[in-house]
Fold this protein.
Amino acid sequence: MIAVIKYTPVIGKTYTLFGDGESTREFFNTVSTLTDTILNHFFWTPSEFLAYIQLKSKKRIKLDPDWLKTSNPKFYDLIEILHKGLSVFTPGVEDHLKSVPVYKFVTDRGLLTNRIQYYLFLMEFELVNRLNKEDFMTSNYKIALLPYCLRETQSHCKAETDAVDYVCKGCRKNCYINTVSSHLRKQNILPYIWRQSRLKTLFKELIKKHGSLGVMGIACIVELVMGMRLCMKSRIPVIGIPLNANRCIRWTDGFYENSIDMAQLESLLIHSS
């Protein structure tokens, strides 16, 4: 079992996996249940559902029930289901969008992710995990890319770079990077704090050297999905866990303590067959 470290609710700029509760268990249960409900409701396979939401999430469609119901009844039906289940986890989207500077429309469009896109992204990471988990687990060489913002503090970190990227040295007992890294190593997954690697080049080099590569990502929801898509384009089995909130300087005015659901991480790394 993974060692228990400090785990308290955190709220991000646009989302929190704690919702209005004290645990993230409800979030992961909700996402799993909603995925099953939608697959049965629309008679989709997981691959068909994934292709559909990837296409729809490219456009910043407004949450306008009257317009959606008339223009695209099928999509309206989907969003209605998702809104009922996921709105509690995305409380800050609209307020955030009102505060985004105009120049971000050019320099950082990820900050412009709207409510419907968040709903679709929350389905996407779940589907990708379901589709890729076994291929990831059976890959010859597995790495995990961890966000630097998950460190306990933003100073005095003793992580050092190697041929790939920064590696945690375990300098702080209560740091999530340390806890996650320690657990991943026991699973024969090499953890890196992603800061400088060019991923496409790195993937090619590792596949050439090891034959097959599996990638795990930990990031805020928007970045996690974008990273998963990059891996899938390279035909690399990818899985991932979202941060419990988006609290880094990219989204806020500084860096704030963050966390992930360690039990969910452990569950994801268990073979299903």
Notes: The chain is about 45% helix and 10% strand. The chain has a mean pLDDT of 90. Residues 25-268 form one domain. Strands lie at 141-146, 160-161, 166-167, 190-193, 213-219, 238-242.
